[in-house]
């Protein structure tokens, strides 16, 4: 599998040493500050747990998931001091939805799907959000669907985030468009 190959060496995306990634994660955490604490958070595409350990400080329970067994193993190591974190393998397209949560976080992950899979991914994620709960989306802007951004497959933040924003089951809490990425937080109202 591609993602196990990708995680054959630690920190394949250089997240732990990147000032850009650190600053982005700080902005994400600040954008979630409207809630004092979340009961349950589902993180989709946890990678090696860099965001997971931050989310652990604002939740009673964090379920960190990734399609890569290697990434899940490293998340377990990174979050080993947090009794409120569980990490498990999840294929969002084929595995059963892991319950309903107060917050579902998808950071730099949904553009790995094919465009025709996005409606199913959107529905599966929505099924994981409690009514009144939130979704936080953080993705790179891509030249393929935006006026600026990076070379990235066929789509990026614009396509992904607009799909959720256009869903009447959600209302926008926060939408921050930076030069390189977009961060959108939505609340499920229906």
Walk me through this protein's architecture.
It is a single chain. This protein has one domain: Rossmann fold. A seven-stranded mixed sheet has the order 3-2-1-4-5-7-6, with helices on both faces. The chain is built from six helices and seven strands. The longest helix has 13 residues. By secondary structure, it is an alpha/beta fold. It is globular and about 40 Å long. β6 and β7 form a beta hairpin.
Topology:
Blueprint: H1 2-6, H2 19-31, E1 38-44, H3 50-55, E2 59-66, H4 69-78, E3 85-89, E4 101-107, H5 118-127, E5 129-140, H6 157-165, E6 170-177, E7 181-188
Parallel strand pairs: 1-2, 1-4, 2-3, 4-5
Antiparallel strand pairs: 5-7, 6-7
Features:
29% strand; 190 residues; Rossmann fold; 7-stranded mixed sheet; 7 strands; alpha/beta
Quote the beta fraction. Answer: 25-35%
Q: Shape, please?
A: globular
CATH architecture: 3-Layer(aba) Sandwich
CATH homologous superfamily descriptor: Vaccinia Virus protein VP39
What is Rg? 15 Å
Low-confidence stretches: none
- Determine the structural class based on helices, strands and strand pairing: alpha/beta
Oligomer, anyone? single chain
Largest beta-sheet characterization: 7 strands, mixed
Helix content: 25-40%
**What's the number of structural domains?**
1
CATH class: Alpha Beta
| Mean pLDDT across residues | 94
| N-to-C CA distance | 37 Å
- Secondary structure tally, helices: 6
The succession of helices and strands, N to C, reads: HHEHEHEEHEHEE
- Tally of extended strands? 7
Q: In short, what is this structure?
A:
By secondary structure, the chain is α/β, with parallel strands linked by helices. It contains 6 helices and 7 strands; from the N terminus they run H-H-E-H-E-H-E-E-H-E-H-E-E.
